Structures are given as C-alpha cells and as structure tokens.
C-alpha cells in the first residue's frame, strides 16, 4: 500500500539525513529523497543509530578508562604541586577577584563548548587552569579570612580515593571500610576529648550546621517526649531553646527547622569577654522552670564566631544539671584544642555536655566537609530518628543497626567524609593536629601584640584562639567618628581583598564595623603580619586622601 508523508515528516527526515555524516555523500537530489522516504529513512536511521551507539560506547570507554585516569591524574598532581609551591612563595594573588557577571559566562562556556575532536588531555588541562586561575587560594599564607583552613594537601589524596571509588555510607555493607574508619575516629577523638570509653557514641555529617541540627533534634526528642511522632501541640506553653548571644546563626535556623520557631530562642546575656554569663543563665533557668516552660536545651559555644570566645562550660554544665536541662555545645571551631596540651583547658567541662559537635574541616585542617557529633550517653544515638526502611536496613542482621550510619544521620547516602582525616592521622599521628593548633594560635597572639604596640591600631579583645578582631584608627586630623572609622575599615578590607594581596573579613562589633582575621594556615609567618598592617595603613590613607 502506498504511504503518504506530511510536510513535517519530510522536514524531519531531511534534517535527520543531513545530520548523518555517512549519508551526506549519497545525497543527489532532495526531491528524490523525499519520494523514496520509506526505504532511505529506515536505512539512514539504522546507520544513525549504529553511529550513535558507537559514539556513546567510545565516550563511556574514555570516561572509565584506567589509562586515561592515570594520565589526567598525573597531570593534575604535578600541576597542583607547582601551584602550592607558587602560593607558598607568595607569587600569586590570594583571591582571584572576578565579579559574578565575569565568572558565570566562563562557567557556562565550559559546559557548552565540548568538541569531540579536541584532545581530552588538553581539554582537561584547560579546565584545570581555568579553575585555578579563577579560584580562591586558601593555601596562600596571606589568606587569614574565614574559619576555613589551608587543608593538608595529602588529606585531599585520601578524599580522592573515596571519591574515585565512590565509597558511600548508609548501611555497613555499602561502605564497610568507610564505616569502620568513621567509627574508629569517633572513638579515638572522643577518648582524647575525655569521654569515657564504651559509654559515648557519635556520628559524622556534612558540616557544622547539619551537626548542630542533628544534635538539637536529639535534644528536642529527649526533652519533649513524643515530639517526633505527635509534634509539640500538646504543650500549653511553647518550648524554648537557650543559646549564647553570639552563637552561630545555624542555632536559630535549627529552631525554625525543628518547629520551635526562631522567636522561641532565648539569647543568654554575655559577660565583659563576650562569653555566656553563667549567672544570667542560672536565673533564666530558674524562672523558666518556675513558670513550667518546656526547655529543649541550652546551647553553649566553644568558641563563638565573632571573637572566638569560649564559654565557661563547667559552670554552664553545673547549672544545666541542677535544672535537668540538656546541654549542647557548639565546638565546631574549638573542639580541636583537645589535641593541644597548651590549649585543651579552653574546653574544660565539655565532657559534661549531653551533646557537642566538632568540625574536623576547620581546626583539624582537613578538606570540607567533616563534622562530628558526640553524645555522652550512647543510648541517645537512636533518639534522633524513628523510621522504618525495610529495603535498606536488613532485619536479618539486627546487630548492624549499631553501626549503620543511616540510622542516625539526616543523610541516607553519605560520602566517606573521614577519609582525609583518617589518612593524615594514620600517617603523622594525632600530634600533628596539636602542632597546627599551637602554631596558628601563637601567630594570632603575635598579631595581637603587634596591634597593641601600634598607635594606629586597636585590638578589640585578647584572643583565646586564632580569631582576632581589630580596627585601624586613622590620624585625628581626619576627624572621623566611631561609625566613620568602622566604615573606613570596611572600605580598606574591600580594597585589599580585591587587590589579591591578602584575604581578611569584616564584622560588626557593638554595631561598628571592624576587621577580623582567622589564622588558618600554619605557614603564615611574622613577615606576613607586618605586611598586612602596612597594607592596611597604606590603603586607608589612600582612601582618605581621595
């Protein structure tokens, strides 16, 4: 039976035919093609399909080629070694500053400009160069900005091992070694902190915010019975969460996520050193218990972000025990002082907390993200979640529930986050973490002394760790008030980071702008600090004179 074809079908065929490189040479007359559509279209489609399958197979072989991995990997390691050498020589900018409207088109171009005829190695090299040239150089000794470290490069190799072989976690059988490494690190670090072996437990999750949320969810479920299954509507008074007034914003965010409401977060007053006032906490707890207001937890800090203040944990723990209140400690930044004989006193009392968190990707100097949650009472580990997933958790092996990470984390599938920490610890021993704490804390103390000795700088607190806030004070002849001085400091900071010479951050302290540094590279030297102060002076005077 004769077939007829619509104009749309004919156009589709011609488009398909022209796109088939094998058929282009057969084209003599487009009209004859349309007339013989049925036979030629079938043949063309078969050849197109064969070619598509062949190209797909080639792409897959290239993507999974061990030899290709080797050649690209050798180039990457060599290039990174050169890059780190140059950074340690201060030969590059700290921040490669480009506006978003400059970076985004380049990122889109990388996604849109694949050419199958390009050499894959050359394309890989180009992509790596683009990433390096436009990235942030946290390994530069003059990066002294946020609480993100110049991570130990070797840790990245162990992370790559986990990423390339895709070691994932949720149940033990999917990540037997990743799970074992994580459990061993939880046990070892907990013991170093001072928890009693066999009585505590913990988990690892993706970042301090998620770690705090997980611990506070546990606190809510323990403190407010049946809140997981029945919600919190049964309480005649809305439950409250108490926290340090300078606590990280993720604590208030957690209150919103947990259904408490951000307005139910009570900020405990600070003392003159911006630490939680234990006496004020005592009075608040007394009043709340007297009014029968449900209390989820008290959240202390070790240390708080603004100036790195460590709360008096022993006094806070005593108050919480007197009023039978869950104590949680956000020790994301400061928990690593447990490895330092000189500075571990800063977290005295943390072992009395019901829960606390520590970020290895901050002051243990491993790549992000790797955050630990510890529970003093190991039975609390299973109070966080109450769900049944028979497709995942095997009822024929109930003992595995004690080690399956998916039972206790918000994540189901989770990357092997502890490979970097495990590798560094196994190679160098735990003392390397104490070395990094001591060197960065001492360099911060040196900066504090230099600021104290300078007439044109004002340190705004005495540092307890590697965080320091200060202001540049211009000559009196410029007649600036406090707020104007604060704005000048912000402008100085913006000029400096865009120049690439240093990376520092800004903050508000008592409502006035200030400069803030966190020494997160153990290779930062005294000469770098001297140059920072001079750069601030020069930049400020240039701004004032324009």
CATH class of the domain at 167-428 reads Alpha Beta
What ranges have pLDDT less than 50 throughout 5 or more consecutive residues?
1-31
Q: Could you please say which CATH topology of the domain at 167-428 applies here?
A: Aspartate Aminotransferase, domain 2
Strand order of the largest sheet: 2-8-7-6-5-3-4
How confident overall, as mean pLDDT?
91
Structural class given helices, strands, pairing? alpha/beta
Structure in a nutshell:
This protein is α/β, with parallel strands linked by helices and 546 residues long. Among the domains are: 8-63, no CATH class; 167-428, Aspartate Aminotransferase, domain 2 (3-Layer(aba) Sandwich). It has 19 helices and 13 strands.
Description:
Mean pLDDT is 91; it is low at 1-31. The protein is 47% helix and 11% strand. The strands form three sheets. It has a seven-stranded mixed beta sheet, with helices on both faces. A four-stranded antiparallel beta sheet has the order 10-11-13-12. A two-stranded antiparallel sheet has the order 1-9. Among the domains are: 8-63, no CATH class; 167-428, 3-Layer(aba) Sandwich (Aspartate Aminotransferase, domain 2), CATH 3.40.640. It has 19 helices and 13 strands. The protein is of the alpha/beta class and 546 residues long. The radius of gyration is 29 Å and the shape is globular.
């Amino acid at each position: 039976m004769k077939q007829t074809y619509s104009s749309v079908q004919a156009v589709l065929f011609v488009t398909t035919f022209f796109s088939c490189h094998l058929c282009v040479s057969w084209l003599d007359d487009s009209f004859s093609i349309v007339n013989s559509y049925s036979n030629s279209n079938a043949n063309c489609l078969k050849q197109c399909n064969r070619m598509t399958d062949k190209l797909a197979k080639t792409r897959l072989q290239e993507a999974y080629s061990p030899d290709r991995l080797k050649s690209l990997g050798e180039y990457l390691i060599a290039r990174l070694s050169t890059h780190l050498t140059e950074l340690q020589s201060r030969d590059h900018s700290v921040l490669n500053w480009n506006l978003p409207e400059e970076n985004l088109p380049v990122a889109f171009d990388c996604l849109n400009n694949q050419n199958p005829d390009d050499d894959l190695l050359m394309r890989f090299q180009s992509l790596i160069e683009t990433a390096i040239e436009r990235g942030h150089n946290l390994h530069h000794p003059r990066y002294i900005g946020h609480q993100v470290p110049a991570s130990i490069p070797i840790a990245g190799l162990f992370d790559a091992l986990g990423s390339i072989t895709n070691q994932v976690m949720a149940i033990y059988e999917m990540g037997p070694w990743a799970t074992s490494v994580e459990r061993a690190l939880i046990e070892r670090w907990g013991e170093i902190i001072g928890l009693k072996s066999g009585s505590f437990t913990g988990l690892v999750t993706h970042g301090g915010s998620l770690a705090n949320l997980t611990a506070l969810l546990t606190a809510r479920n323990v403190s407010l019975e049946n809140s997981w299954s029945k919600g919190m509507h049964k309480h005649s008074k809305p439950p409250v969460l108490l926290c340090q007034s300078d606590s990280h914003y993720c604590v208030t965010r957690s209150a919103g996520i947990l259904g408490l409401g951000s307005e139910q977060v009570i900020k405990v007053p600070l003392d003159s050193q911006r630490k939680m006032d234990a006496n004020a906490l005592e009075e608040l707890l007394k009043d709340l218990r007297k009014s029968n207001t449900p209390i989820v937890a008290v959240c202390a800090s070790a240390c708080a972000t603004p100036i790195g203040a460590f709360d008096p944990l022993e006094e806070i723990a005593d108050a919480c025990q007197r009023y039978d209140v869950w104590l949680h400690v956000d020790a994301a930044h400061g928990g690593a002082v447990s490895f330092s004989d000189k500075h571990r006193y800063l977290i005295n009392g943390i072992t009395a907390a019901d829960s606390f968190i520590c970020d290895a990707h901050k002051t243990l100097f491993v790549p992000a993200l790797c955050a630990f949650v510890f529970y003093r009472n190991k039975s609390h580990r299973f109070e966080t979640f109450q769900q049944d997933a028979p497709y995942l958790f095997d009822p024929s092996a109930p003992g595995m529930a004690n080690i399956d990470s998916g039972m206790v984390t918000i994540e189901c599938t989770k990357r092997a986050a502890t490979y970097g920490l495990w590798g560094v610890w196994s190679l160098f021993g735990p003392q390397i973490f104490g070395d990094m704490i001591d060197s960065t804390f001492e360099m911060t103390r040196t900066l504090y002394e230099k600021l104290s000795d300078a007439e044109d700088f004002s340190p705004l607190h005495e540092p307890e760790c590697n965080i320091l806030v200060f202001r540049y004070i211009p000559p009196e002849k410029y007649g600036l008030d406090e707020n104007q001085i604060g704005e000048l400091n912000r402008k100085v900071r913006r000029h400096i980071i865009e120049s690439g010479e240093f990376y520092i951050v800004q903050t508000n302290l008592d409502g006035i702008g200030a400069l803030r540094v966190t020494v997160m590279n153990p290779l930062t030297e005294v000469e770098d600090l001297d140059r920072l102060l001079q750069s601030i002076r020069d930049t400020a005077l240039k701004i004032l004179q324009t």
